[in-house]
Hints:
By secondary structure, this protein is mainly alpha-helical. It contains eight helices and no strands.
Amino acid sequence: MKLQFAKFFASVIFIGKFPVAPGTFASLMANLFLYFVLLYQNQASIDLRLLMAFLVPLLFFVGVFTSSIVTKEINDKDPSSIVIDEWVGQWIPFVFLPLNIQNLVLSFIFFRIFDISKILFINKFESFSGGWGVMLDDVLAGIYALVLVIIFNQFI
């Protein structure tokens, strides 16, 4: 039961089973979810930054826990089926930034560049054991994406 829940959660309702580029697909789905939140934000009067400030750390820690279970069970350090890390990394900018189409597109592009390339010390975080290694590299990619979106918004 615990393993089934861990696989279900870590793969974000099995989005991680997408056959082609599951990390990119998961990032796209994370932003698509936020886009629908954007559409209904005014009607529901949601304080999105407060919600994200709660959800991102919660998903991070549950992601560490469930990713640790899955990686240990299948003996793979960072399986492509685990995509909760993409959701967390993709949503980090929206703890601090307003939710709009421009920020959604920019955060997606910048996050994917950093997550795929593993530049600027991101690859060092993969060496942490279990779920920590799965999650932390995407957290750093999300922080870098946040910084670039802020720079883009200020100067371009």
